[in-house]
Amino acid sequence: MSGSWSTYVIALVVLQVVACVVLLWYTSRRHKGEAEPEKTGHVWDEDITEYNKPLPRWWINLFYLTILFTIGYLVWYPGFGNFAGTSGWTSAREHDAAKAEGDAKLAAALKPFEGKALPELAVDPKALAFGKGVFANNCAVCHGSNAQGAVGYPNLADQSWQWGGEPEQIVETVLNGRNAAMPAWAASLTAMGGATAKDDVISYVRSLSNLEQPTSDVKERGQKLFGSICAACHGPDAKGMAVLGAPDLTDDAWVYGSTREVLMTGIEQGRNGQMPAHKPLIGETRARLAAAYVWSLSHKPVH
Fold it and tell me: Is the distance from CB of 281 to CB of 138 less than 8 angstroms?
């Protein structure tokens, strides 16, 4: 706080305290020549009369005590401009102490789970409970409280994994995030296959998961275009490439939807899916616990 602002705050505080003292003193004393408490002229139910009387002395004294408390508070704690207070208290120091205490408690709670593999964590009830809480606080906002995703956010409770479903692949996803990018291919498809190219590819892709049964010539044209452009990422069999984050197009798991309109939007505008890195946000152990919880959703133990 600058010196001018400090002076302003000090002057304002002093003025308010003095004003309170003067107001209490002036309104509580009986002035020279003042008559005894008088009636105000307000009467209810014929015999209930309102008088104009000063506050009781004990009540006035309580007000004075609050003013004394205020002065003592300003001496002990900072609040009087740049004066730091005799206690040395600061909100930053209070925050740091509380954070350090919380971090120590958290570290002690996480200690039993450090360095353990996902399959091991996924059968530990305490680890799963911890991981479920981490998921709810950090992941559910996108993937839903039941982890079944939404438009643009994959379902984490099935067997379809865009970046791979092996334990360490899931850990890598949670720790360091993912960036999935599909370019807009409309111009390239049209240049190669003419006006019907986009529709042909969509019909072929939908036929892979039995969503559509195009005619043989449409399917043939779509397959040829797919092999020329799309197979580079999604593979010649359209089963995707986890290393690129290219999804399997032959199953029933669709991140953005499987309608012709949605697929057309993807071809014309591309897609950019981003998963933030959570290691800097919540630390490695908590991230691994969340990953273990996610892995457990599709890997139920066999009894």
Answer: yes
Q: What is the pLDDT of residue 29?
A: 73
Residue 131 CB contacts under 8 Å (≥ 6 apart), including other chains: 121, 289, 290, 291, 292, 293, 294, 296
Q: Where are the domains of the chain?
A: 3-30+37-76, 114-297
Helices (H), the chain: 3-28, 57-76, 91-110, 118-121, 125-138, 140-143, 167-176, 186-193, 197-208, 216-225, 231-234, 260-269, 279-282, 284-297
Compute the distance between CA of residue 165 and CA of residue 179 in angstroms, rounded to an integer: 17
More confident residue, 42 or 194: 194
CA torsion 146-148-150-155 (nearest 10°) is: 150
Compute the CA torsion angle 276, 277, 280, 283 (nearest 10 deg).
Answer: 120
Q: CA separation (Å) from 194 to 13, 175, 179, 190, 203?
A: 78, 44, 31, 5, 15
Q: How far apart are CA 186 and CA 238, in angstroms?
A: 19
Q: Which amino acid is at 114?
A: E
What would be the CATH architecture of the domain defined by 114-297? Orthogonal Bundle (1.10)
pLDDT single digits (tens) 81-97:
888 889 988 889 999 99
The pLDDT of 161-183, averaged and rounded, is: 94
**Which is it for the CA torsion 209, 210, 211, 213, positive or negative?**
positive
Q: In this predicted model, what pLDDT tens digit does every residue of 124-145 receive, in sequence order?
A: 999 999 999 999 999 999 999 9
Q: CA torsion, points 21, 22, 27, 28, in degrees to nearest 10?
A: 50
Which of helix, strand or coil describes residue 132? Answer: helix
